Amino acid sequence: MKRKSSFENEDNVKQGAWSAEEDKMLINYIQLHGEGNWSELSKRAGLKRRGKSCRLRWLNYLKPDIKRGNISKDEEDLVIRLHNLLGNRWSLIAGRLPGRTDNEIKNYWNTYLRKKVEQKQHHNSNIPVKLRIEAVNDSVNTMSLIPTSCDSQNPFASTPQDDRNHPWTLQDFDITDLLMSHEDYDCHFRGCACVEIPLHFADEACMINDVVGETWYENWKINEYIPL
DNA sequence: AACGGGTGCAACCGCAAACGA
DNA sequence: TTCGTTTGCGGTTGCACCCGT
């Protein structure tokens, strides 16, 4: 375990790496008296540390239920999905991962996962996808699904119908437009959509949600993946 | 072996919210 | 209501380690 050397600042307050002795003092004190009131705790435990520093050390490193070691694939997937939903709200994300701390999740994201996700998004943004949209008759605001770069005619005005009598349309989408359509409009579409991905991309174990994300499912959904 | 750039991660900082007198 | 203190959070820093040259 690596440790930075510690030092005392001008206020006689210790900063930097915690020694094994300090860890022991903090653990012993909390086992006897419990956590809370950290600045007082620091004094009573005989630590020349700021209360804040004691709290951080305890919550991020010393607390008994902290899970140490590599983050599993399942945990990694969960972090990615939660970050997609919640953004940089590390404490909320960590709250869903028993034994993991917000600091650990944040570090893991910043040093590893962010790059991985960005690479994946870059890869997926190059996949030419088609989106087949089915609308039920009372859908409102269906046009909001159609990006401005596409034909602005109502796609359901004179389109064929499927075996469930749902009108459908097939259009080429730029994946960025597709994602933007959720963010830019109040979408009240009710129906289904199918993503068509060229077969040679499908070989690469690519899931629908990898391509279009999971963030725009309020009133509609993608329910099918059709290799071309 | 020595050096330097890149990386990981513990710890710190600043701010805002919560709390209590 | 105001004010001081504590707590919690996310962003940032900087040391130790790794690895290529």
From TrEMBL:
GO MF assignments: DNA binding
A Pfam family of this chain: Myb_DNA-binding
Protein's UniProt keywords contain Zinc: no
Localisation: Nucleus
Keyword tags: Activator, DNA-binding, Nucleus, Repeat, Transcription, Transcription regulation
Domain Myb-like, residue spans: 10-62, 63-113
SMART domains: SANT
Top-level taxon in the UniProt lineage: Eukaryota
GO annotations of cellular component type: nucleus
Listed InterPro entries: Homeodomain-like_sf, Myb_dom, Myb_TF_plants, SANT/Myb
Residue stretches making up the HTH myb-type domain: 10-62, 63-117
Keyword Cell cycle (UniProt): no
Alphabetized PANTHER family for the sequence: TRANSCRIPTION FACTOR MYB51-LIKE ISOFORM X1 (PTHR47998), TRANSCRIPTION FACTOR TT2 (PTHR47998:SF83)
This protein's name: Myb-related protein 123
Species this chain originates from: Flemingia macrophylla
